[in-house]
Hints:
Elements (H helix, E strand, L loop, with lengths): L1 E5 L9 H13 L3 E7 L9 H5 L6 E5 L10 H20 L6 E4 L2 H5 L8 E5 L6 H10 L2 E4 L2 H9 L7 E3 L6 H4 L5 H8 L6 E6 L8 H7 L7 E6 L3 H10 L6 E5 L6 H6 L3 E4 L6 H6 L3 H8 L4 E4 L2 H4 L8 E3 L4 H13 L1 H15 L4 H14 L5
Parallel strand pairs: 1-2, 1-4, 2-3, 4-5, 5-6, 6-7, 8-9, 8-11, 9-10, 11-12, 12-13
Amino acid sequence: xxxxxIANVRMPTEKAHGIQxxxxxxxxxxxxxxxxxxxxxxxxxxxxxxxxxIKENFKIKKIFSLDLIPLNIPKVFFWIQSLTFYISVFxxxxxxxxxxxxxxxxxxxxxxxxxxxxxxxxxxxFPNNFFLHKRVFKKVSRIIVITxxxxxxxxxxxxxxxxxxxxxDGVDLEKFDIDIxxxxxxxxxxxxxxxxxxxxxGHLYKWKGAQVLADAAKLLDNDVLIxxxxxxxxxxxxxxxxxxxxxxxxxxxxxxxxxxxxxxxSADVLILPNSGKSSISKNWTSPMKMFEYMASKRPIIASNLxxxxxxxxxxxSILIKSDNSQELADNINLTLKETNFADxxxxxxxxxxxxxxxxxxxxxxxxxxxxxxxLD
Length: 376
């Protein structure tokens, strides 16, 4: 089976979508897969396979796009880059034979929808201007979504429910279930051995809730260190400036994907503080770090939001009110004291994580694509 995966993104990238795309291409790679990427300027010079630590079991094809984005006029130049890529994709695939054309970018599928029927669209958030995407959602053979809320929203807009599959994001269990103690992980990363470490990984966007965790630092004892791993350089600098007076936080910035399992193993508690003030956070997201947290066998404290509750519950995590630093601090203290309870939810989260392997995700998607030919 031939699969063409279209991704209008800079790859490799320090952003999470790059990991998701790379892992899914690897999981689909048992088939004959080709990843179509735009030509883009990239400060990261490593190749995709080395950067993400994945098997070289698929091919990559870079095609023309006019990349003016580094000139820093984002909206205009973003659309120029995107439009040139869409046109290049259209002409590249017009006469190509492939069993599946798969993409997370509905606009990449728009021109192809006039000539191709074997289109699969994966979406991770509900589009603001739905009317611009409606033709693609109507014409594609299947739609893959990461939360039930996304499926419900599409159905409410008239999209056939039988063509929509809910499949959450996943985790590379082998990479994150590593045999290393907390102390060994800290020595490897030069983290203090005499502190309780509360860890957050990921970007520092407002809807991710990182500032809520930073505010909670003011309410914790000095023997508790909050460590932030991730974020763009620009966001990291702003975050450091905003929190420069806090002595019990450590802001480390972006780290390589291969280091993340060690950071998770170094922690006493892992935090997923998503804000409830944003639709993407409250309804659409299925954070990869949530599954990585679960696989690491460390206790998780997370915002009690419908998107996260599709995976997390009272047996595998501690769910708290979002956007509330006091409640977050109180539950961090409780988790650090109640070690038996922390161990109990950690073990259950680890067991639950076994259901979210990338290969299992790919198998579910492929089975769904070929299950009911009546939809084609």
